[in-house]
Amino acid sequence: MIRAQKLPEILESVLHDGILGGVLMTTEGSVISSLFTEQSALDETMLAAVASSIWLNYVQGNVCDVQ
Questions:
Q1: Alpha helix (H) ranges present in 1-67?
Q2: Pick from 45, 4, 38, 43: nearest CA to 24
Q3: Are strands 21-25 and 31-36 parallel, antiparallel or unpaired?
């Protein structure tokens, strides 16, 4: 199990080579943690739209068996 305090540190490790943000989600589509650089200009509404799109693509790809 990952400690909640470590999540920003773990997500920060992916912010390089032009990657401006990272989101950790459950297989049910819930956002656990997110981290973005100041250059990303992503707000909560855009994060919700991105998470929704990721989840929709995940489900449509038949990767999981969601009812």
A1: 7-12, 44-60
A2: 4
A3: antiparallel
Distance CA 19, CA 4 (A): 22
Structure tokens at 55: 């989840």
Of the candidates 15, 33, 14, 13, which has an alpha carbon nearest to the alpha carbon of residue 23?
33
Per DSSP, the three-state class of 40 is helix
Structure confidence by residue, pLDDT tens digits, 13-58: 888 788 877 878 787 777 787 777 777 777 778 778 877 887 788 7
Find how far residue 61's CA is from the centre of its chain: 18
Question: H-helix or E-strand containing 36?
Answer: strand 31-36
